[in-house]
């Protein structure tokens, strides 16, 4: 029996030795994060034998020169990218009142983007906003793509194009947005007073009827 995610029970598990981590493609959870060299070899030197292929943690990988980034090795450069991505995720999440669970999941997706070079040549705000919106869709929160466009000052069409490329890269099937999620949000912004509850109830019934008649999509 194949491995499944303990968080969402998905069997879509991505194990890539080059990234040295194991990630659930269903929810973005990082199941394992370490760098292990499977073979131990010995190299003859003047002072004796040196071991090549020892276990090293992902966060303490030994230095590897990175061309074009003076003073930073490969691991340090990636960590800097992760830190900046997490900071931007927290800033956007704070403005849109997105909970910590969604922020953490978005950060996991962002790390996957970094490891697959999806961030190369793209503004960080595009990738971060796409990751956050993707999580909001998966978690059925009442956030629109336009919300992220407003906060990041990114063109909504450019953001949508980045999102489509991202879900294609990660092979994630986003559920269709449920219109009922937005009824309460929009009703609250209309300042309906005592009639808000009645309006929300009626609007919800209309949407449910439209869903039964296959009129809520497209």
How many beta-strand segments? Answer: 5
Order of helices and strands: EEEEEHHHHHHH
Number of domains: 2
Strand arrangement within the widest β-sheet reads 1-2-3
Structural class, judged by helices and strands?
mainly alpha
Whole-angstrom Rg: 22 Å
CATH topology of the largest domain: Cyclin A, domain 1
Description:
- By secondary structure, this protein is mainly α.
- It folds into 2 domains: 13-59 and 72-170, Orthogonal Bundle (Cyclin A, domain 1), CATH 1.10.472; 180-212.
- It has 7 helices and 5 strands, in the order βββββααααααα.
- A 3-stranded antiparallel beta sheet has the order 1-2-3, with no helix packed on it.
- A hairpin with a 4-residue loop joins β1 and β2.
- α3 (124-138) runs antiparallel to α4 (145-152), α3 packs across α5 (156-170) and α6 runs antiparallel to α7.
- The two termini are 38 Å apart.
- Mean pLDDT is 74; it is low at 34-70.
Can you lay out the helices and strands and say which pair or pack?
Elements: E1 13-16, E2 21-24, E3 30-33, E4 41-45, E5 48-52, H1 74-96, H2 100-115, H3 124-138, H4 145-152, H5 156-170, H6 180-189, H7 196-212
Antiparallel strand pairs: 1-2, 2-3, 4-5
Helix pairs in contact: 1-2, 1-3, 2-3, 3-4, 3-5, 6-7
Could you give a quick summary of the protein structure above?
This protein is mainly α and 218 residues long.
Task: Using brief descriptors, characterize the structure shown.
218 residues; mainly alpha; 2 domains; 7 helices; globular
């Amino acid at each position: 029996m194949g491995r499944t995610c303990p968080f969402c029970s998905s069997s879509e598990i991505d194990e890539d030795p080059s990234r040295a981590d194991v990630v659930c493609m269903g929810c973005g959870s990082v199941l394992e994060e370490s760098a292990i060299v499977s073979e131990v070899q010995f190299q003859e030197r003047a002072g004796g034998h040196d071991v090549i292929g020892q276990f090293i943690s992902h966060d303490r990988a030994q230095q590897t020169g990175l061309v074009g980034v003076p003073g930073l090795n490969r691991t340090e450069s990636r960590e800097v990218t992760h830190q900046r991505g997490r900071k931007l995720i927290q800033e956007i999440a704070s403005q849109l009142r997105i909970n910590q669970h969604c922020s953490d999941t978005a950060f996991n997706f962002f790390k996957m983007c970094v490891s697959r070079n999806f961030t190369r040549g793209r503004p960080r705000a595009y990738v971060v906003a796409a990751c956050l919106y993707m999580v909001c869709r998966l978690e059925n929160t009442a956030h629109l793509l336009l919300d992220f466009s407003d906060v990041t000052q990114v063109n909504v069409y450019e953001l949508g194009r980045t999102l489509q490329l991202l879900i294609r890269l990660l092979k994630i099937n986003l559920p269709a947005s449920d219109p009922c999620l937005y009824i309460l949000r929009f009703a609250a912004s209309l300042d309906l007073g005592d009639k808000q509850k009645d309006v929300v109830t009626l609007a919800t019934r209309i949407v449910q009827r439209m869903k039964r008649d296959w009129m809520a999509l497209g």
